[in-house]
Specification:
By secondary structure, this protein is mainly alpha-helical. The protein is 73% helix and 0% strand. Keywords: Sigma factor, Transcription, Transcription regulation.
Length: 161
């Protein structure tokens, strides 16, 4: 019972991590809910194996990103193409409408990135440093820096169009 209570507390304290990943990797609200549930399920399955060798958020990001990538691969194998639903981005709760529009634009362009690029830029936007991103993704810190520079350039060129 204590394990379950600890897990629920962990999810409640860090649900923003899961929400942000589902926002980027899911195509519509229904897919977002399904992915959220799948991530929580995978976290539960792995909960006993977490030994505290990294921060809990690093562990959660790693599982959430791996689950999201696996989910995308399964969808591709199905051959289904789901169109992007702009209503998901309407949930971003910002008072400043100019900032809200910029965030929407950014996330719409992030959705166009490949699977790995989405994960790296999402972690960067969360304020993770290169070493933390490297720990989550398995890349080296220098590789993370290179990838981030390329992703930033790609986003800048897409947004300027």
């Amino acid at each position: 019972m204590q394990k379950q209570q600890n897990f629920i507390k962990l999810i409640k304290e860090n649900e923003g991590i899961i929400y942000k990943i589902t926002l980027v990797y899911a195509f519509n609200e229904e897919d977002q809910k399904d992915l959220y549930q799948e991530i929580v399920y995978q976290l539960w399955k792995s909960f006993d194996s977490f030994r505290g060798g990294s921060k809990i958020s690093t562990w959660m990001y790693r599982i959430a990103l791996n689950t999201s990538i696996t989910s995308l691969k399964k969808e591709k194998r199905k051959g289904e193409q789901v169109s992007f639903n702009n209503d998901l981005l309407d949930r971003i709760d910002q008072i400043d409408t100019i900032m809200e529009d910029r965030i929407k634009l950014l996330y719409s362009h992030i959705k166009q990135l490949n699977t790995v690029e989405k994960g790296v830029i999402l972690l960067y936007l969360e304020g993770k440093n290169y070493d933390e991103i490297a720990a989550i993704t398995g890349f080296t810190s220098s590789n993370v820096g290179t990838r981030l520079n390329r992703i930033k350039q790609k986003l800048k060129s897409q947004i300027k169009k």
